[in-house]
Each structure stands twice: as C-alpha cells, then as structure tokens.
C-alpha cells in the first residue's frame, strides 16, 4: 500500500491512561492539529462523557470528536471516541484512585480486543499507574507484560526508541537485588535475536549494529569488579557474532554514553532497567517512545508517566505521545514492506535489478 493509498486510513487505537493524569490532555492536544488526520484515524478508548468533561476543564474546546459505540464503524480522518463506558466519573487530578485505575484497565482491555480482531491497526497506550490497576491473580506489572500475556508472546522486548538512540534491556521490572541472578546467557541471546529481528523488520535496518553493555562498573574491569562479563556476557556476544549478528561489547555504560560511542550503533542492549532507561530519558525525553518488540501486534507509548504533579494544569507537552503515534505508523509500514519482500524475494530482486 502506497503512502497516498493509506493516508488517514490507518486506525490507531489510543488508550486513555490514568484519568487523573495527563493522558487525555496530551491525546486531545495532539489531535487539535488536523494535519494528524492525514496520517491516521485516531480511536480513543474512553467514555464520551469523560472526554467532554476533561475537554471543558482543560479548555480544549476546539477538540471535536465522533462518539462510537462498540460494534459501530469509526469515521476515517476524524477523532473517534470509542465509548467503552457510559458512567459519569469524577476527576481528581493528581490522585491515584481505585476508580481511575479500574477504568484505565477497561480502556486497555477494549483496545486489545479490537487490536486482536483487526479493528484497529496499532495501539498507543497513554500512561498508567501500575499500583491502582486491578489484577486478578498478581500485581499488574505494566503494559509490556500484560500485552505479552494477552497475545501469548513468550519472548518480548521493551524497546525504547528515538531518532538518535534505541535501547532495550535484558532484565526489566526486577528489583535491583535480583538483577544479577536474572541475567543468563540464554536470556541475553534471546533478547539480542529479538532486537536484531525488530531492527530489520520494524525499523528497516538491513544489517543492524548492536552494542551490548556490561553489568558491573567498568564492565567488570577484567574480573576485578565482577565475573559476569567474562563468564556470561562476552561469550554470548562472540556466539551471536559467529551466528551472523553484528554485536559488539561488552561496554562500560558510563563511558559508552558519556563519550558518545552510542552514536556508532543502531541500538544498545543494556543489562537492566535503569542502566538503559536513565541515559535514554536524559537524551531523548519528550521525543522517546516505548515499543514492545516481539508481539504479533504493534504497541507504542510515550516514555513519560502519569505526571500527577502537573495534571489538570493544562501545561502537559504532547510531543512524546505524538512521536508514539508516528512510530506506530512507521513500524506498521516497515513491517508490511518487510513481510512483502520476504514473501516474494525474487519479485523484489528483479524489480531492484530493473532500476
């Protein structure tokens, strides 16, 4: 499908996030710009009365929308609110309430159902508070793990992406005291393969170059500060390189980012959450996007949280969620191109030779 053919036809499902945070504010601000409708049709999963109330409270009265009930068709190139509840809910800016968590989950589940059914093409999730999301069996760990479970993805990758930097982590939402035990040769290799495949299929890199960080200070300092680099990480890097992946390291995290070495690579695999996300957010805040690689569907989100401290003040910046929407469209386009090329490689080879 060419750019002209899909202009405005890509349906992006957008969850409302925590109703007492900045989610709906940044969503509405994004689509006040009607040029966004040239690239996608937004489908916002919330309650129409809640949208109307927040629009009034935030003085975003120029945000116009079409209310859709489950089972109804959306209107292309317009703002659509999929009204998954009719309740009139209170807004308690900046507070993590049981109500805001419960309805955030309803929004997520409705969007996932439509994504699985092919009614939307990709999903963008506004920020939530994990602590007030009701969970039946265990604590809600985050969008990434929730989506992986819903789509039966045994292997997945939390991938933070921006124009200048792409970072993933081996050990995700794990307490610091458990990180070393969570890092194994098998897990690193699986993450590297997922990252390599995602860089090719989702981002269009033909031969992606991946840097791997060490676990310990100074990447273990030749065993003086820890043995994980010599015994676990370096052997995996050698094996991955022998298997055809362009993987290098392990690098000491401080010098790697401080010297700008990261600019020589297409992506970075960090060992644990803060090792990768702290520099990423320092370098890409408000332009970074969280993408879940390894799923059969596309899900992105802004790289910030609920921002309770500024909720309701009308000062939230929409740059990151706009980038999340752009990335969801770009990834969808790249996947379609990649899959078509790999399904009919001879046809594309001949086409390339004729040029």
Would you mind describing this structure in some detail?
Strand 1 (11-15), helix 2 and strand 2 form a beta-alpha-beta unit. The chain has twelve helices and twelve strands. It has helices at residues 3-6, 23-30, 48-57, 98-116, 143-150, 179-182, 185-201, 228-242, 253-258, 273-284, 319-343, 345-354, and strands at 11-15, 41-46, 66-68, 80-83, 122-124, 157-161, 166-171, 209-213, 246-251, 267-272, 289-293, 299-302. The chain folds into two domains: 1-153 and 295-355, Isopropylmalate Dehydrogenase (3-Layer(aba) Sandwich), CATH 3.40.718.10; 155-293, 3-Layer(aba) Sandwich (Isopropylmalate Dehydrogenase), CATH 3.40.718. Helix 7 packs across helix 8 and helix 11 (319-343) crosses helix 12 (345-354). A twelve-stranded mixed β-sheet has the order 3-4-2-1-5-12-11-6-7-10-8-9, sandwiched between helices. With 355 residues, the protein is an alpha/beta fold. The protein is 39% helix and 16% strand.
Short description:
The mean pLDDT is 91. The protein has a twelve-stranded mixed sheet with strand order 3-4-2-1-5-12-11-6-7-10-8-9, with helices on both faces. The radius of gyration is 21 Å and the shape is globular.
């Amino acid at each position: 499908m060419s750019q002209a053919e899909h202009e405005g036809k890509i349906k992006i499902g957008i969850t409302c996030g925590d109703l007492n945070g900045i989610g709906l504010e940044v969503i509405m601000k994004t689509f006040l710009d009607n040029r966004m409708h040239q690239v996608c049709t937004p489908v916002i999963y919330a309650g129409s009365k809640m949208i109307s109330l927040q629009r009034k409270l935030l003085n975003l009265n120029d945000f116009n929308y079409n209310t859709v009930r489950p089972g109804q068709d959306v209107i292309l190139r317009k703002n659509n609110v999929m009204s998954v509840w009719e309740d009139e809910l209170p807004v308690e800016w900046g507070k993590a309430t049981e109500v805001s968590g419960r309805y955030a989950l309803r929004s997520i589940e409705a969007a996932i159902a439509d994504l699985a059914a092919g009614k939307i093409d990709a999903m963008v999730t506004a920020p939530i508070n994990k602590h007030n999301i009701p969970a039946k069996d265990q604590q809600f760990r985050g969008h990434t793990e929730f989506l992986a479970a819903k789509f039966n993805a045994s292997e997945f990758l939390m991938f933070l992406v921006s124009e200048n930097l792409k970072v993933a982590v081996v050990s995700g939402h794990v307490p610091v005291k458990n990180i070393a035990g969570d890092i194994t040769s098998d897990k690193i290799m699986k993450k590297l393969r997922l990252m390599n495949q995602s860089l090719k299929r989702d981002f269009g890199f033909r031969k992606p170059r991946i840097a791997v960080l060490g676990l310990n200070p100074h990447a273990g300092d030749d065993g003086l500060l820890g043995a994980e680099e010599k015994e676990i990480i370096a052997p995996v890097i050698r094996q991955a390189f022998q298997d055809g992946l362009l993987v290098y390291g392990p690098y000491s995290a401080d010098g790697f980012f401080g010297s700008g070495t990261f600019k020589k690579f297409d992506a970075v695999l960090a060992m644990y959450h803060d090792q990768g996300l702290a520099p990423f957010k320092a370098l890409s805040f408000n332009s970074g996007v969280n993408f879940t690689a390894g799923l059969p569907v596309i899900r992105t989100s802004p790289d910030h949280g609920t921002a309770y401290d500024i909720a309701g003040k009308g000062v939230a910046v929409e740059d990151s969620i706009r980038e999340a929407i752009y990335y969801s469209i770009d990834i969808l386009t790249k996947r379609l191109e990649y899959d078509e090329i790999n399904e009919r490689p001879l046809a594309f080879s001949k086409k390339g030779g004729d040029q």
